[in-house]
Every structure is written in C-alpha cells, then in structure tokens.
Amino acid sequence: MQRLFPVFLSLALCAAAAVAQAGELVRQFSGDRSTQTAEFEVEAPWLIDWRVNSEFPSSMGISVVLLNANGAYEGLVLKTKSPGNGVRLFEQGGRYSLKVDTTVTNWILKVEELTREEAELYMPKTTGALD
User: Fold this and answer.
1) Cα 28 to Cα 25, 55, 103, 108, distances in angstroms
2) What is the predicted pLDDT for the residue at 122?
3) How many Cβ atoms are within 10 Å of 112's Cβ, its own excluded?
4) From CA 50, how far away is CA 29, in angstroms rounded?
5) Mind listing the pLDDT tens digit for each residue in 63-119?
6) Which of 64, 1, 5 is nearest to 31 (CA)?
7) pTM of this prediction?
8) Which partner from 7, 19, 53, 58 sits 20 to 30 angstroms from 107, CA to CA?
9) Spatial CA neighbour of 65 closest among 83, 88, 85
C-alpha cells in the first residue's frame, strides 16, 4: 500500500489542477498574420488564454485589442515582442472580437468562460481595467 501512495497522491494533484484550470472553451483562434477574429459572445467571468512564438524571436511582435460588438475599442489585451503565454481575466460579458496585429508571430488565443469559483482562483499580477 505504501508503494501506491505516491501514485494516488499524483492522481489527486492532477485532478485538483484540472479543476483549478477548468474553463469552458467558447472559441479558439490561431494564425500567423494580422486579422480581426469572428465575433464571439461570452458571459462573465471569462478569460483569454494566449500563446505566442516565432521562428525569428528577435523580429517578432504582436498586439491584440478587444473590440465590442459595434467595433469600438475596449482595450489592449496583450502586446509583446517576445515568445510567451499568459491569461487575461474579464469581468464583463458581451459580444466581442479581437483585432490581432502581428509581425512574424504564430499565435493562439483561447476564449474561455469560467465559473465564479474558477475566477476567484485566478490571481492577476496587476489589477485594473484594460490599458
């Protein structure tokens, strides 16, 4: 039984991690050039899980802007010149699209709805509205 304890502990930790990161995927967008995504509708709370990389990291760059259903600017979601990933939490639902401006960058953007409990587990590095 002692030999099985580490296995059970590992399984329990994996299940807890899955619950902490469980979100309902609403839309996923990916590409390697500038575009405006299709419109999507979300209920609060929700997040954008982003990943960016490039074969030419010293020349890459990307910015992603959130637009409302009328096409009006809601704020900057991300702007970077380095490979990486991250998440951005939103507390207001609605209909949106994303405007992606990029240079030699591969990108993936996942839009996920969260439960209130899942959103409470999210710990932002900074607080406040979109830039």
Assistant:
1) 7, 22, 20, 7
2) 76
3) 20
4) 10
5) 999 999 999 999 999 999 999 999 999 999 999 999 999 999 999 999 999 999 998
6) 64
7) 0.77
8) 19
9) 88
3-state secondary structure the chain: CCCCHHHHHHHHHHHHHHHHCCCEEEEEEEECCCEECCCEEECCCEEEEEEEECCCHHHCEEEEEEEECCCCEEEEEEEECCCEEEEEEECCCEEEEEEEEEECCEEEEEEEECCHHHHHHCCCCCCCCCC
Phi, psi dihedrals of residue 41, rounded to the nearest 5°: -120, 135
**Dihedral over alpha carbons 93, 99, 103, 106 (to 10 degrees):** 50
* Token pair in block for residue 28: 């996923």
Q: Which residues pair with 110 in a beta bridge?
A: 28, 49
Cα 63 to Cα 101, 117, 126: the distances in Å are 5, 30, 18
Residues 109-131 have pLDDT tens digits of 999 999 999 988 876 555 555 55
